[in-house]
Specification:
This protein is 33% helix and 21% strand. It contains nine helices and nine strands. Strand 7 and strand 8 form a beta hairpin. Helix 4 packs parallel to helix 7 and helix 5 packs across helix 7. The protein starts with 6 loop residues before the first strand and ends with a helix.
Length: 263
């Protein structure tokens, strides 16, 4: 939060190496080390317990409901009002729409915009193919079936297929980020909360490691992109008292976390 930016665009579970390969956005890219290997660690170490009244948080990540109401000037919890029940996530274009609205509503605030992709459940052609072929758990109201990592461990999904689905999900969210940058004023940074294990082996363990919830803390999980996009005009930012937050349906939040593989 001490870095110099007007807009911080956060991709969820975005590895540095995949970002470096696929990114076409202009700017200066460097590798940074995240304060967490999963979303709540990132949120807790960067936001919790602080007074960030000059900043608005637009987020698709359900862990935002654990942030105290007086932390940001305002929080738009997109997982509560823009959730895609069919897929079990918030689509990147809906994050863009919300971020544009926030930029218009709060022209004198910094923006943190937290996309859910490329975090599973993946979006794109390969992800749709896997959903047609495999009975996957966690999509919408579907509680049966198998988790995506279980499917690959049981060889119902190949390593190449899951990496392709991740890559396509990242490509799609980067397209949305590019569109959002055209709508925002000020200096922007594109980064990630953490990375993702996609079947790498971590010695001394000989089995493949997936996701970011299995207790490992590796460079792949910690190293994230930090892409700085300069702007001639900067935003005049002021701090103001926080906007009152609404209460949440705890069962709905739990369902959202389950769909994303956190339960």
């Amino acid at each position: 939060m001490e870095a110099d930016w007007d807009n911080l665009l956060v991709l969820d579970a975005c590895r540095y190496d995949y970002f470096e390969e696929l990114n076409t956005l202009p700017g200066e890219l460097r590798r940074e080390v995240s304060k967490g290997k999963k979303s709540w660690d990132f949120i807790r170490h960067n936001f919790v317990g602080r007074e960030l009244h000059d900043t608005v948080y637009v987020t698709a990540n359900p862990f935002s409901t654990d942030i105290e109401d007086d932390t940001f000037h305002d929080i738009d919890h997109l997982h509560m009002n823009r959730w895609d029940d069919e897929i079990g996530t918030v689509q990147p274009e809906d994050v863009v729409d919300a971020a544009v609205e926030a930029n218009e509503t709060y022209p004198d605030k910094r923006l943190v915009v937290h996309f859910m992709q490329p975090h599973r459940p993946y979006i794109g052609e390969m992800a749709n193919e896997l959903r047609r072929r495999v009975d996957l758990q966690g999509y919408g109201d579907h509680d049966d079936g198998i988790q995506i990592w279980g499917a690959v461990k049981q060889r119902e999904v190949s390593v190449d297929e899951i990496r392709t689905a991740y890559r396509q999900s990242l490509q799609l969210v980067l397209e949305s980020v590019e569109g959002l940058l055209e709508e925002l004023d000020g200096k922007s940074v594109v980064t990630a909360d953490h990375g993702e294990m996609l079947g790498e082996r971590v010695l001394p363990v000989t089995t493949r490691v997936w996701g970011h919830m299995e207790g490992f803390s590796t460079p792949t999980l910690r190293e994230v992109p930090w892409l700085t996009i300069e702007a001639e005009a900067r935003r005049d930012v002021v701090a103001e008292e926080p906007v009152a937050q609404s209460s949440f349906d705890e069962d709905a939040v739990s369902d959202r976390l389950s769909a994303l593989g956190y339960r």
